[in-house]
Amino acid sequence: MTTSTTATTNTTHTAEFMLDQLQVVKLTIRLWTSSKKLRPEDLKLADGTVLPPDTLASLGTKKTIDPKQLLEFTRIKKEAERICLEAGTRFIGGFANPSEEIPRIVNELDALSRLFDQEKQRFLNVYSESTEHWINQHPDFADAIRNAIEPAASVARKLVFDYMVFRVSKPQGELGDSLNRHTLSLSDQLFREIAQDAKELIDRSFVGKDSVTGRVLNAFRRMRDKLDSLGFLDYRCFPIVDEIDRVLASIPKSGPYNGSAYHALFALGLLLSDPDKVKAHGGGLSQTQASWPDDVGQPSAFESVMPEDDEQAMAWPNETTLFTLDDYNAIQYVEDDDEDDDVGNPRLPPHFNRTALSEWDATQAIVFTGAVQQPTTDVADAKTDGNVVKTQIPVPAINSTNDMWF
Predict the structure, then answer these.
(1) Which of 20-29, 55-64, 283-292, 309-318 has the highest mean pLDDT?
(2) CB environment 379-390: b (16+ within 10 A), e (fewer)
(3) pLDDT for 49-59, tens place per residue?
(4) One Pfam family of this protein, by short name (predicted)?
C-alpha cells in the first residue's frame, strides 16, 4: 500500500513538473482549397449512362481556380508547424514547447502572419482574373466552374492565420487523471516525431546512395537540439543527445561523406528512426555511463537504477527521493581514505547533472530528501562498500528551475 501511494504521488508530481516547464502554442490556420462538390449536371455523359446512387459512391470535387495559386498558403502553414515543432512536440491539439523557446516562436509566427496577410491580399486582388483564366483553360466545363465560384469576400473570411499561447494546469482530484496521462505520454510523442524525421532523412538522403552531403548534418543537429530542449520529459533523451554529438564529432567537418563516415551517419539515422530502439538505447547508455570506472578503475559509487516504465521516467522530488548521477566528467567519487572532510564526513560531487529517478535501493546510490542542490547539512547516515561511501543526506529545497538543471 505504501509503495502504491508513493508511486502515485511521484507520478502526479511528474506531470505537474512537466506542465510547469511548458507552454502550448495553438495554431489557427485555415486555408481555402477552392474545392466544390461535383454534381451530376456538371458531367457530360453519353446517352444511357447511369451514375451510381449517392449511397454507393460520390462524384468527388471540382476546382474553381488553379490550385497553384494557393500553394503559398500551404507552405506558410507547414512552416508555422515546423517552427512549433523545432523544439516542441504535439500536445492536446497544439504544440508544447519549453517556456524559454516561446519568445523565438512568437517572433517567427508574427513574421509568418504578416507574410500570410500579404499573400492573402495579393490573391484577392487577382481572384476574379484567376477564376476567368481557369475557366478559359477548361471551356468544356465553363458553366460547372462558373456556377460554383465563391465570392471574394467569402474567400477572404476563410483564409485565416492566428495563434495563441497558453499554459496548462492540472485540475484537482480525479478530474486531472486524463491530463496526467496525456502529459506523461509526451516523451512517447517526442520519440515518434524524431523517428519520423529520421525516416524521412534516410529515405531522402541515404537509401540507394553511397555518400551524403553536409546537409544531412543539419538534419541530425535539429533532431539533437529538439531532444536536448525537451530532455526533461524523459531521462533517455540526454544519452541520445550525447550519442549524436559523438557521431558528428567523429566525422570530418566538411563533406561529402562516404565510407566509414557515411555508414556511421546511416547507422545513427537507423537508430533514431525506431522510437523503441531509441528508448532502449538511451536507457542502456544511462546505465553504462553511471557505472563508468574512475581513473583508478574503481566502479562508480553512483550506479543508475532505471525506472521500470515510462511513467516513472522523470518523477520529481517528493519526500525521500533517489537521484543517480551520470556526468562522468563532473563526478568526484566518495572514498573513505582521502575524500573525507576535516570532521570525517564524506564529500559529495560539486556538480549534479542529468538526474534520473527510480525505484531505489539505498545501497546503490545517494538518497536525498528534497530536491537537487548543494547539500548544506551534515551527513545523516552513511554506508560503506569497500572504500566507497554511500550516504543519505538531507538537502534544502530548490528555489528555481535553474537549481534543478545544470
Answers:
(1) 20-29
(2) beeeeeeeebbb
(3) 656 566 556 66
(4) DUF3150
Confidence category of residue 357, pLDDT binned at 50, 70, 90: very low
Select from 65, 66, 59, 30 the least CA-distant residue to 45.
59
67-76, 292-301, 394-403: least confidently modelled range:
394-403
> 358-375 pLDDT, tens per residue?
333 333 333 333 333 333
DSSP string, 237-269: HHHHHHHHHHHHHHS-SSS-EEHHHHHHHHHHH
Clarify whether residues 31 and 152 are in a common domain.
yes
What gap in Å lies between CA 30 and CA 192, rounded to an integer? 26
Based on the domain organization, do 160 and 38 belong to the same domain? yes
Residue where a domain terminates, one of 174, 195, 223? 174
Residue type, 385: D
- Which domain does 270 fall in, by range? 185-290
Tell me how far apart the alpha carbons of residues 375 and 384 are, in angstroms, rounded to a whole number: 19
Residues 286 and 302 occupy one common structural domain? no
Are residues 320 and 226 both part of a single domain?
no
Tens-place pLDDT, residues 122-179: 999 999 999 999 999 999 889 889 999 999 999 999 999 999 999 998 887 777 788 8
Residue 147 and residue 64: Cα distance in Å, rounded? 9
One-character DSSP codes across 147-209: TTPPPHHHHHHH-EEEEEEE---PPSGGGGHHHHHHHHTHHHHHHHHHHHHHHHHIIIIITT-
In this structure, is residue 11 part of a structural domain? Answer: no
Report which residue type is found at 284.
Answer: G
Question: Cis peptide before 151, with omega less than 30 degrees from 0?
Answer: no
H or E, element range at 36: strand 35-37
Using 50, 70 and 90 to split pLDDT, how confident is the model at 108? very high
Name 262's Cβ contacts closer than 8 Å, sequence gap at least 6.
Answer: 210, 211, 212
Report the alpha-carbon distance of residue 146 to residue 264 in Å, rounded: 58
Statement to judge: residues 133 and 189 lie in one domain: no
Is beta strand 94-98 parallel, antiparallel or unpaired with respect to 160-166? unpaired
Q: To which residue does cell 495559386 refer?
A: 69
